[in-house]
Amino acid sequence: MHRNFAKLPGAAWLGVNFWSRTGGPLMWRSYDPRVVREELDVLREHGLNTTRSFYYWPDFMPEPDRIDETLAGHYADFLEAHAERDMKTIPTFIVGHMSGANWDPAWREGRDLYADVWMVDRQAWFAEEMTRRYTGHPAVAGWLITNEMPIYGGKAPTEQVTAWARLMVSAVRAGGAKEPVSIGDGAWGVEVTGEDNGFSVRDLAAITDFVGPHVYRMEDDLVRQHYNTAFICELAGTYGRPVVLEEFGCSSDFVSDANAAHYYRQVLHNSLLGGATGWLGWNNTDFDLIDQPPYSHHPFELHFGLTRVDGTPKPALEEMRRFGRTLAEIDLAACERAETDVALVVPSVLDAGFPFTVGGDRTYAFGTLRQAYVSARVADLAVGLTRETGGIAPDARLYLVPSAKQLTGPGWRRLEELAEGGATVYVSYSAGPHGWQRGPWYSHMNAMFGVEHRLTYGLADPIEDELVQLTFTTDFGSLRSGTTLTVRAAGTAHSRSYLPVEPTTAEVVATDGHGRPAVLRRRHGDGWIVLCTYPLEHMAAVTPRVNPEPTHRLYDALAEIAGVRRPVTVADPRVSADVLVRADGTRFAVLVSQADVEVKVTPQATPAQEEVALEPYGVLVLELRP
């Protein structure tokens, strides 16, 4: 199964979102060419090649038909400063939101940014005029229409947003641009987050050249936090466009310098393995602007910089340099992600919007899928995501359907067909997180899984134990008979429930602490259908500081049963492994540690590997020489 690793032409973008420390969003009013060049020098010395820059809209377009020529001149010098250093920048047009505040041009007067025809025309005029001035400049790498427009312009119907975006992209092209263009919305649409803000990732990908996630999530589990950005990149990449991680980072007010460096290291490498091929940290510098909005009321925004106010680098900037060296050593442009035999099925409820369903089902799906992604990574399974909406991919050996309340009828039928053709299909049950039509929305559950369910109408079957024990009564892949997996019970009054069943044509391979069927398998054609009666992934997803948790051992067993090919594995669940393949056939094993201490592992691969040591939260890239 192919995993998206699309790339933009030229060198991969590795850089930062840029505001000069002299003014933040107001830098163009007090533009200092000397300071800007000093700031760019520090970035270039650390191997960065790209910035994302911003036309602060109220200043650059003070009247509906006028561009401030003084500021445009400053921007021209800004481009020259980049070219002098062999750097590039990505201009952003509609900058009305920034760092915790919205700013309007005085002439907007409350007009709707998407639906008011005159207002859309003025935005398009600005984008076209600014493009015409600077397109073709050696320092222009690409174009972004906005900065986080869902925050500035608000939510709107998808058809309005998509029409607005199409007109804006057309304006950039009308200005003569040949460079890549995207929206700058953050990829926060329903296809990624489960929350519908009108900015459809699918629809916008169809009219742009790349998708650009912005990721700043607060979490309650460190391993999930380290893999979260990668998972979002995987979701964003399901539409075939290059994925540029447009914004990520952390304020020094929220994290120590050492832990910020760990975070950058993890996000950079895990998102690479998750399909990202461009990275722009937030942001280049700290600020000493405590009296200036937005920093006066959002003071933590002062300290997201990779450099301090005096220009000295923080440890996270060194992580960017190290990552850049890795990209050069492996020759990223010539690399692909290794193909995979494992598909993580994204249910269509996440993105399709069926009538008379509850919005919480969408965000629930995001949480369970992300936890399944983490467990798969712990098991050294480099999963590919396949959307039910677009048709489940036919070429995997193992399909994971974690803690699923619902797929469509055709989706269930398709999974059964894939099992008949030789695949292993794994489904774990969930009643869902709320009481609206609680229970399994499965088209033919009893027949598909070889069971008779024993559900009672209107009632959940609560998991009353604090610890759920799954004891295997027969050998099951890498799990030997007598093995017990112990997981923490969690969830709402609705989702913390199990599925009572009696086997008919299925075989019970594991029971719970009460002797009830917990894992069952049924031979179907040349493959297997496996049912877990507990929502393992959901329970882990809502449990703080739980990873790595035992579901990865079940996934490892499923992989063995399905005959999944894993080119490199490690025995320690705190270290994950994946492979990149260069066009000349060279393979690179990427090992990522989630341990807070040094760990030593011996990668299992062909050819045999020696023991290696990883620093706390460390990463190693090993060439697998024949």
How many strand elements? 30
If strands are numbered along the chain, what order do they take across the biggest sheet? Answer: 14-13-15-16-23-22-21-18-19
Anisotropy-based shape: globular
Global structural class: alpha/beta
Biggest sheet character: 9 strands, mixed
Report the uncertain regions.
none
Strand portion: 15-25%
Mean pLDDT: 97
Oligomer: single chain
Key terms for this structure?
9-stranded mixed β-sheet; 7-stranded parallel β-sheet; 626 residues; alpha/beta; 16 helices
Description:
- It is built from 16 helices and 30 strands.
- It starts with 13 loop residues before the first strand and ends with a strand.
- Helix 9 (222-236) packs parallel to helix 10 (257-273), helix 9 crosses helix 12 and helix 10 runs parallel beside helix 11 (315-330).
- The chain is globular, with a radius of gyration of 25 Å.
- Helix content is 29%, strand content 21%.
- It has a 9-stranded mixed beta sheet with strand order 14-13-15-16-23-22-21-18-19, sandwiched between helices. The chain has a 7-stranded parallel beta sheet with strand order 7-6-3-2-1-11-9.
- The chain has 626 residues and is an alpha/beta fold.
List the helices and strands and how they pair.
Blueprint: E1 14-17, H1 33-45, E2 50-56, H2 57-60, H3 69-84, E3 88-95, E4 97-98, E5 101-102, H4 117-134, E6 143-146, H5 149-152, H6 158-174, E7 181-182, H7 190-193, H8 201-205, E8 214-215, H9 222-236, E9 243-245, E10 247-248, H10 257-273, E11 276-282, H11 315-330, E12 335-337, E13 342-346, H12 360-378, E14 384-387, E15 398-404, H13 409-420, E16 424-429, H14 445-449, E17 451-453, E18 467-472, E19 484-488, E20 501-503, E21 507-511, E22 517-524, E23 527-532, H15 536-541, H16 551-562, E24 568-569, E25 575-582, E26 587-593, E27 599-601, E28 604-605, E29 612-614, E30 619-623
Parallel strand pairs: 1-2, 1-11, 2-3, 3-6, 6-7, 8-10, 9-11, 13-14, 13-15, 15-16, 16-23
Antiparallel strand pairs: 4-5, 12-25, 17-20, 18-19, 18-21, 21-22, 22-23, 24-28, 25-26, 26-30, 27-29
Helix pairs in contact: 1-3, 4-6, 9-10, 9-12, 10-11, 12-16
